[in-house]
Design brief:
The chain has 497 residues and is α/β, with parallel strands linked by helices. Helix content is 27%, strand content 26%. A nine-stranded mixed sheet has the order 2-1-11-10-12-13-14-15-16, with helices on both faces.
C-alpha cells in the first residue's frame, strides 16, 4: 500500500487542482507526480528518508508531497514563512536529507547555514532565482517515471511538527494507515461524505494537519477538485467561492469571523456551499450564528489534533447543538477520565482520551514524550477536557495543556520562552495566551530583565520575529520584577493570565 495511491482511480480528464488560475487534471497530476518521483529516486533518495516541504498552498506542494510519499520517503511539511533558524531546527530534528522549497520559502532558505545541517544533501527549488547548488523542479519533472513504492501500513508517511508545553517542537509520526484510516472515518461519518463533483476551497495551510488530511488527502481520495488559495483575503476568497462554485469549505474560526463581519459582502456568495466546517480552535457561537443569519449557511464544528491524524469528532450530519463538537467518528473509541486515569461519572467533565487506527505512531526519536502522550494500551491523552450530553454529543470545556491557539495554530509556551530567554537582557520569562478579538488568542510575554540591563518592548518582539514564525511571536511584552511561582518553583501561568 501507499498513501500516494489516493489519486489513482479517478478519470484522466477530471480536474484535481486549480492553482494560480491554472487547472491540473488527475491524469496530468499522475504523470507529473510519476516523473518527479523518478527524479527523486534518481537523486538517490530512498524509502524512509525524510524530505522537508516548505511550500505554500499551490501546485508545487501537492506534486512534491505526492512524489515524496510515493517514493517511500517521509514528507515533513513545514511553514514556508518560518524564519531561517526555525526552519533549520525542523531540518535538524528530523535529519532531513532533502528540502523541497517553493517560492515563498526563498528568503528563509537563503538564510540557512547549510554547513550546520550535515544530513541535508539536496535543495530542490522552483524555477527562477535559486541558490547555485539547488536542483530545479523543472529538471526533475523531465525524469523517467518511477513506480509507487509499496509500503507497510505501519510505515511512516508524514511527520508533522507539534510540541509539548515543556520542550522543543517534536515531530509526530503518522503512518500510511493512520492517515488513510482517518479519511475512511470521516467518510463513514453521517453528513461528512465527499463526492467527486465537489469543489473544495483549499485555504487551510497544508503544513497543518487540518489542511493536509481533511482538506487535501480527503479531496484527492474522493476525486474532488481543490481550488488552492495561497493567502487568505476575505474579499478575494469570497470571489473565489462564487467564481468556482465551491461546495465545501473548512477553516478556523478566524476565517468565518472575517467573512461574517465583512462589509458589503454578497449575501448569495455562498449559495453553492453544501458543507461548512470549523476546527483548529473553539468556534464562538456568536460567530456561527452571525454567519448563518447573513449567508444562510450553517457551520458545523469539529475537533481533532495532529496525533489523531486529526479528526476525532464532527457535528456534520448530526443534530448537535451549537457549541458542540459533535459525535465521534466511526471506528474511534473515546473515554473521559479524571486525574488518576479512571472514567468519570456520567455527566462529569474529564480529559478526553481516544483510541483507534488513526492514532499516531509516536514522536520521532522521543520515547519519553510518546509514553506521556499515549498509554501502553493505545489510548491517546489529548490534554483537552470535555463533557458529553445525554445524546452523546461532546463539548470542550477546558484545556489541560497550556497551548495557546492563534488563528487555529498551536503555540507552545516553552518554544517561545526558549527564544526569549536567549535575549541578552532577559533573566526570566513566561508566556501565556490572552483573548484576542480576531485571532482568538494572542501571545503575551512576561519578562524579568537582568540587573542593570534595559530593553524595549519592540526590541524583544523583534528578537522573537527573527527566530519564530509570526503567529508565535508575542503581541505584548510586560516587564515585571518577578514571576509568580508555586511551592516547587514552577511558574503559575494561571496567575499571569
Amino acid at each position: 500500500m501507499n498513501l500516494a495511491a489516493i489519486v489513482d482511480d479517478h478519470p484522466d480528464d477530471a480536474v484535481a487542482l486549480i492553482s494560480r488560475n491554472k487547472s491540473t487534471t488527475y491524469g496530468e497530476l499522475r504523470e507529473q507526480v510519476a516523473a518527479l518521483r523518478g527524479g527523486l529516486v534518481g537523486l538517490g533518495l530512498e524509502p524512509g528518508d525524510r524530505v522537508a516541504l516548505a511550500c505554500a498552498n499551490n501546485w508545487y506542494f501537492v506534486v512534491s508531497y505526492l512524489a515524496v510519499v510515493g517514493a517511500g520517503c517521509i514528507a515533513v511539511p513545514v511553514n514556508p514563512s518560518a524564519p531561517s533558524p526555525e526552519l533549520a531546527s525542523y531540518l535538524a530534528v528530523t535529519r532531513c536529507r532533502a528540502l523541497m522549497a517553493g517560492p515563498k520559502a526563498r528568503t528563509s532558505v537563503a538564510g540557512l547555514d547549510r554547513s550546520s545541517l550535515a544530513d541535508l544533501e539536496f535543495l530542490i527549488q522552483s524555477t527562477g532565482d535559486s541558490q547555485p547548488d539547488a536542483v530545479l523542479l523543472d529538471d526533475l519533472l523531465g525524469s523517467d517515471p518511477a513506480p509507487v513504492v509499496d509500503r507497510d501500513p505501519d510505515d511512516v508517511a508524514v511527520m508533522m511538527f507539534t510540541s509539548g508545553t515543556a520542550g522543543a517542537p517534536k515531530a509526530a509520526m503518522l503512518t500510511h494507515d493512520n492517515l488513510l484510516a482517518n479519511i475512511e472515518q470521516m467518510t463513514a461519518h453521517p453528513g461528512r461524505q465527499q463526492r467527486a463533483d465537489d469543489v473544495v476551497l483549499g485555504v487551510l495551510p497544508m503544513f497543518h494537519i487540518f489542511g493536509l488530511n481533511v482538506m487535501l488527502n480527503l479531496s484527492l481520495k474522493s476525486g474532488s477538485s481543490i481550488v488552492l488559495v495561497e493567502r487568505f483575503d476575505p474579499a478575494s476568497a469570497i470571489e473565489t467561492v462564487t467564481n468556482h462554485g465551491v461546495t465545501i469549505i473548512s477553516g478556523p474560526p478566524t476565517m468565518w469571523s472575517a467573512w461574517a463581519n465583512l462589509p458589503g459582502a454578497d449575501l448569495n456568495a455562498f449559495r453553492t456551499v453544501r458543507l461548512a466546517t470549523s476546527g483548529a480552535a473553539k468556534l464562538p457561537v456568536e460567530t456561527a450564528q452571525l454567519f448563518e443569519d447573513r449567508f444562510d449557511v450553517r457551520i458545523d464544528e469539529g475537533y481533532g489534533l495532529t496525533e489523531a491524524a486529526p479528526v476525532v469528532s464532527t457535528a456534520s450530519g448530526t443534530t448537535a447543538p451549537r457549541g458542540s463538537i459533535g459525535s465521534v467518528v466511526p471506528g474511534l473509541e473515546v473515554r473521559l477520565v479524571d486525574a488518576d486515569g479512571a472514567d468519570v461519572l456520567e455527566g462529569d467533565s474529564g480529559e478526553l482520551w481516544v483510541r483507534g487506527p488513526n492514532v499516531f505512531a509516536g514522536y520521532w526519536e522521543d520515547a519519553e514524550a510518546t509514553e506521556h502522550a499515549r498509554t501502553a494500551d493505545g489510548w491517546l491523552r489529548t490534554g483537552d477536557v470535555a463533557i458529553a450530553d445525554d445524546d452523546g454529543f461532546l463539548y470542550l470545556v477546558d484545556r489541560a495543556k497550556d497551548i495557546i491557539i492563534v488563528s487555529g495554530f498551536n503555540v507552545y509556551p516553552a518554544e517561545v520562552e526558549n527564544v526569549l530567554i536567549e535575549h541578552p537582557a532577559i533573566d526570566a520569562c513566561a508566556v501565556v495566551g490572552v483573548p484576542h478579538p480576531y485571532s482568538g488568542e494572542a501571545v503575551k510575554a512576561f519578562v524579568v530583565l537582568r540587573d542593570g540591563v534595559s530593553a524595549e518592548e519592540d526590541d524583544v518582539i523583534a528578537w522573537c520575529s527573527e527566530r519564530l514564525a509570526r503567529y508565535k511571536c508575542p503581541d505584548k511584552v510586560m516587564f515585571v520584577d518577578e514571576l509568580p511561582a508555586g511551592v516547587g518553583g514552577k511558574v503559575l501561568r494561571r496567575a499571569l493570565r
